[in-house]
From TrEMBL:
Limits of the Thioredoxin domain: 8-159
Upper taxonomic lineage: Bacteria, Pseudomonadati, Pseudomonadota, Alphaproteobacteria, Rhodobacterales
Pfam families: AhpC-TSA (PF00578)
Protein name: Thiol-disulfide oxidoreductase ResA
Species per Swiss-Prot/TrEMBL record: Albidovulum aquaemixtae
InterPro entries: AhpC/TSA, PRX-like1, Thioredoxin-like_sf, Thioredoxin_domain
Residue spans crossing the bilayer: none
Length: 184
């Protein structure tokens, strides 16, 4: 079932975290943060929405990193019920797709809850002060192949954030599979 997150809560402060990465080290928010902003993405390995856009995510992340925007992806799904999202499989997924950013495992799901992550993919774009400025989608393609004229909404928004500290007033929420929460 596809779900969408709420509209951007401009100015909401990024919540600190320390999570293990597929590269073998622990990453805190300060380690990820870039001088011109930070993009935190909640993704997973098995979601058809993520699978259809992961190569575009990698492309846009690299372009943003080149502009001084820090980038990290977090998988918070219940890996017991969804074994494709296990930490070992996260390592394979990150390597296969050439992630230029840390892919972090939120096994306790505390970080996803603190961010109020709703779906995969769910994008949180912060300015250099750690204030939320973008909670929109990658682009209009959803789970379809992107056409040559698709607007690069995430990239354009984060470029604006990097240059001005402010995100666009108009944002279209992301859409994807719900986060797979553990049983209470």
């Amino acid at each position: 079932m596809a779900v969408s997150p709420p509209v951007c809560d401009f100015g909401w402060k990024a919540v600190d975290f320390t999570l293990p990465g597929t590269d073998g080290r622990d990453w805190a928010l300060a380690d990820v943060a870039g001088p011109n902003g930070t993009l935190i993405m909640f993704i997973c390995n098995h979601c058809p929405y993520v699978k259809s856009v992961v190569d575009r995510i990698v492309h846009e992340a690299k372009a943003l990193q080149d502009m001084g925007v820090g980038v990290a992806a977090i998988c918070a799904n219940d890996a017991v019920r969804y074994s494709e999202d296990s930490f070992d499989n996260m390592k394979v997924f990150a390597e296969r797709h050439g992630f230029s950013f840390p892919y972090l495992h939120d096994e306790s799901q505390e970080v996803a809850r603190a961010y109020d992550a709703i779906c995969t993919p769910d994008f949180f774009g912060f300015n250099a002060k750690g204030e939320l400025q973008y909670r929109g989608r990658l682009d209009a393609s959803g789970r379809q192949a992107a056409g040559p004229d698709v607007r690069r909404e995430l990239f354009e928004a984060m470029k604006l954030v990097a240059e001005t500290g402010l995100g666009p007033a108009e944002q279209v929420p992301s859409m994807g599979c719900s986060i797979k929460w553990k049983a209470a």
